[in-house]
Amino acid sequence: MRSKLHRGDNLFSAVFVSPAFVFYTVFVIYAIGLSFFYTMTKWKGVGTPSFVWFRNYVNLVRDPEYWQVAGNSFTLVLLALFIQNPVALVLAYLTSRIKFGFKPIRSIIFLPCVISAATTGLMFQLLFNADIGIFNGILKAIGLGFFQRVWLSDSKVVLFAVALPQVWQYLGIQFIIFLAAIQSIPQEIIESARMDGATGGNLILRIIVPLLWEVIAICIILTVTGSLKAFDMSWIMTWGGPGLSSAYISVLMYRHAFKGFNFSYGTTIAMTILLWSVLFIVVFRSIFRKRGVVY
């Protein structure tokens, strides 16, 4: 009787899991396998692909343009890690302390995440405009006119001008995750720490951060993988220019695949995003497991 019930539970579970399993297999596993197949070929998007085996990967390693955009993507990763996550954590802690106006403030901080990337990119494109942009106007008004730049044309600063909207827009996701985690911490622990003299930065660094290591690890992975596949801000604001100064890996992939109709090489570039993400996750998880953090 018990074995029949067990088989029935397994069948019941399989019925509900099967749609997600089929969806994941077709749109993730099969898609990745098909993409890898195309990286082994020379294909313009039409006709029959011809096998070239690992020639695309060899050309990619020798391509200076790829390493330039990879450096831009890694710069965005660092900016997101050291600005987005810390700011989101501090904002989450401060918001959790608010008694009146908690919901409106939470909504305001999260609001940029629901705005389309195209709208955000166009908005910051106007803000950074050298002639009519408000950013240069503010610098001039407060006596810092010597900091004025042609933000979207100067190769020395354009990458940071393009990265800023990306960091700002998706800060709300980390904020919501941190806020939920902080609210789950028993208030007795926080109050006890305050009674022992922990306030402000000490409370965050010595009490909250150690309690949230698993959540922080997840947020770091989301930040890195999201930054590595970034595309929209760079393309909308500058088309990756001037040259490739503000282009990310995905922008170079788009140029080769959909502008140059070299789909096999574009797919090879796209596969490296997956490879960099997997490499980071493997190394990162091994480091955190040594610290006793399991997630």
SSE layout and pairing:
Layout: H1 2-39, E1 41-42, E2 50-51, H2 55-61, H3 64-96, H4 102-110, H5 117-127, H6 134-141, H7 158-169, H8 171-183, H9 187-195, H10 200-211, H11 213-228, H12 232-238, H13 249-259, H14 263-290
Antiparallel strand pairs: 1-2
Quick recap:
The protein has two domains: 1-39; 55-290, MetI-like fold (Orthogonal Bundle). Helices cover 73% and strands 1% of the residues. The chain has 14 helices and two strands.
3D structure, described in words:
- This protein has 295 residues and is mainly α.
- The chain has 2 domains: 1-39; 55-290, MetI-like fold (Orthogonal Bundle), CATH 1.10.3720.10.
- Helix content is 73%, strand content 1%.
- Strands 1-2 form a two-stranded antiparallel ribbon.
- The model has no long low-confidence stretch (mean pLDDT 87).
Name the CATH architecture of the largest domain: Orthogonal Bundle
CA-based shape: globular
CATH class of the largest domain: Mainly Alpha
Query: What is the chain-wise order of helices and strands?
Result: HEEHHHHHHHHHHHHH
In angstroms, what separates the terminal alpha carbons?
A: 37 Å
Summed up, the domain count is 2
What do the pLDDT scores average to? 87
CATH superfamily grouping of the largest domain:
MetI-like
Please estimate the helix content: over 70%
Oligomeric category? single chain
Helix/strand-derived category reads mainly alpha
State the helix count: 14
